[in-house]
Amino acid sequence: MRFAFLLAILAVTLPAQQRSRKAHEHGAAKINIAFESTKGAPKGVIEFEAPAESVVGFEHEAKSAADKANQAAALNTLKARFGEMVVIPGCKITPKSAKVEVEHHDAKTKGAKHEEHSEVHAEFDVQCAKPLAGTVISFGIAKVFPKIHDTDVALIAGEQQSSVEVKTGKETLRIAK
Ligand SMILES: [Zn+2]
Q1: Could you write out the three-class secondary structure of the chain?
Q2: pLDDT at 24
Q3: Which of 40, 42, 118, 141 has the fewest other C-beta atoms within 10 Å?
Q4: Spacing, Cα 11 to ligand 1 middle (Å)
């Protein structure tokens, strides 16, 4: 699939400091936005990744009914309100999938303290009504999930590649052409 290819390019073209960041840091999220083209009525995909602690509130396996309900509610909030977290004027964001994945650390290492971590992964489809040239993408991530205070956003839109670190929520990304 073409978008998978675009997202793979994003992963290798990100600035070094972003790549070297720890994969799992509570409060830190990643968003990849990919548009194959900015012309016509562009279609794109967005990937979202964050520690479950920052979205669901806990990272142990949801076993109790209460935990399962809280986890489902958090994922539903993510799906329903993602359009407030990443605002692309003129485009509609539709949730494709959202799930919690348990990270498998080296728990078998003798004497190692077992740490339980899990990540939220979500994917969204984007459909825009008009060409993207001049579009300014803004962010409202902490309004939906206040525990997320630092998000690395990478964008590939046609031939443009850019990135921004969203901390205050006032940062933007502009699609040039
Ligand atoms: Zn964790």
Answers
A1: CHHHHHHHHHHHHCCHHHHCCCCCCCCEEEEEEEECCCCCCCEEEEEEEEEHHHHCCCCCCCCCHHHHHHHHHHHHHHHHHHHHHEECCCEEEEEEEEEEEEECCCCCCCCCCCCCEEEEEEEEEEEECCCCCCCEEEECHHHHCCCCCEEEEEEEECCEEEEEEECCCCCEEECCC
A2: 86
A3: 40
A4: 22
| CA 174 to ligand 1 center in whole angstroms | 32
pTM: 0.86
Q: In the chain, where are the structural domains located? A: 2-106+115-174
Range name among 11-25, 60-74, 129-143 with the lowest pLDDT average: 11-25
Distance of CA 77 from the midpoint of ligand 1 (Å): 20
Name the pLDDT band for 13 (thresholds 50, 70, 90): low
Alpha carbon of 24 to ligand 1 centroid (Å)? 6
pLDDT at 14: 53
